[in-house]
Amino acid sequence: MTSRMEAIRNQRAARRGRDLDRAWALVTEDLRNSGIDLRRFGSSSRGEARAHSDLDIMVLGCPDAGQRLRVERAVARASRETGVPCDLHFARDYTAEDLEAILDV
Q1: Are strands 55-59 and 38-41 parallel, antiparallel or unpaired?
Q2: What domains does the chain contain, in order, with CATH numbers?
Q3: How far is CA 71 from the centre of its chain?
Q4: Whole-angstrom Cα distance, residue 43 to residue 49?
Q5: What pLDDT is stored for residue 25 in this prediction?
Q6: Alpha-carbon distances of 22 from 2, 26, 28, 49, 81, rounded to whole Å
Q7: Helix axes 65-82, 4-30, angle to 10 degrees
Q8: What φ, ψ does residue 52 adopt, rounded to 5°?
Q9: Strand locations in the chain, DSSP E?
Q10: Could you tell me if 29 and 36 are in contact, meaning their C-beta atoms sit under 8 angstroms apart?
């Protein structure tokens, strides 16, 4: 039997999951046809989001300054419109081993 508190936690986690999906959709929509390669990772990509989960985004490759600005603006817009905090990461800041572990490749 599920307690009332557990039911509330589950409802909030489900709501956050929908918000995370919406934020990801906004980011990918804004960056469609941009040539920028993104990956969603972390709890939201595994379907394990909780009520306070954020959206983790990895930018692959080496975007130039203009592309980087475009990504930052898309992520800021998605966060603003959904209320979901977003963590933006750039692959060039990580070792190959760290990337493999982070992205579960």
Answers
A1: antiparallel
A2: 4-103 (3.30.460.10)
A3: 12
A4: 5
A5: 98
A6: 28, 6, 10, 13, 9
A7: 150
A8: -115, 20
A9: 38-41, 55-59, 86-90
A10: no
Note the Cα 38 to chain centre separation in Å: 9
pLDDT of 12 reads 95
Q: What is the mean pLDDT of the chain?
A: 94
**Residues 93-105: tens digit of each pLDDT:** 999 999 999 997 5
pTM of the model: 0.90
Tokens 């998605």 found at: 78
* pLDDT at res. 105: 55
Q: Are 64 and 90 contacting, i.e. CB atoms less than 8 angstroms apart?
A: no
59 pLDDT band, cuts 50/70/90, is very high
